[in-house]
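Same chain as my last thread, 315 residues:
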Amino acid sequence: MQRVRSAILGRHRVWIATCAIALLAIAPAAFGQAAKKAAPPAATPPASTLDRVRKTGSLRLGYAVDARPFSYRDQGGQVTGYSVDLCNAVAEAVKSEVPGVKVEWVPVDRFQALPQGQVDVLCGAVVTLARRKEVAFSTPIFPGGVGVLVRSDAPARLRETLSGHAQTFRPNWRASANQVLREQTFAVVTGTTAEEWLNKRRTELKVDSKIAPVAGFEAGVQAVLGRKANGFFAERAILLDAAKREHGLTVIDRLFTYEPLALAMARGDEDFRLLVDRALSQTYASAGFGTLYAKWFGEPDEAALAFFRWNALAE
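reply #2:
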């Protein structure tokens, strides 16, 4: 009897051990299946710009309200300017893809309107590597750069220092160029590449000029006219336009930086970027582009013509 009981107990132990081994073998697969079922679905790729335009029926074009001659509102309230004309060419290209689309002009404060999704295209922005982390840029639309606006009656020492000729002007000067600049107040628009450059130069040269940030280009012009600032650093083409319109202002004959301007759009949408670049290239190569350019900047010289020849892409 004892032998029978021992045999039964032995078989029972073998059965338990076999079940345990089987469970250990099955468990990883079971857990793997559970993990596979619990995995989140693959992320849906973001809709392209044209997909959004088709869905909403509108193309949102962002423009700076006081960046004449690039973009501004005229006396009749119409959005106009050089980069606006180029954005209109882009809008026509979009209409060929999405018939009946409505163009919506959106006034923006500065660059961040595009990364924040407020507009589909920003009609004119300075191209930098830092900004290319946030947005994509078209082929360049203008060979821009930082200049400085002063009053026509500004002291000769200041004008010569800003133009870079202080070393050869009046050898009996006791004050250095830095000493001249230290006495000045310079206006600059907040959030622009001109502000970044001016602050960097001030640090490098150890010049304690006072920097007076302003909200927009017109505010900078008025600061100089009202003698609240001795100079205004900004995109030189904007300053030249202001000097034409306002009596008593002049732009120093010097380009402090080279900063190409371009249209900006969302990153990663290569189809839309191709559409924009094609529209720009066709505009540059058209018979009417010289007239368009002259309307805003005067007759293009050979350097300007070469710039657009280099940036007009072939099909």
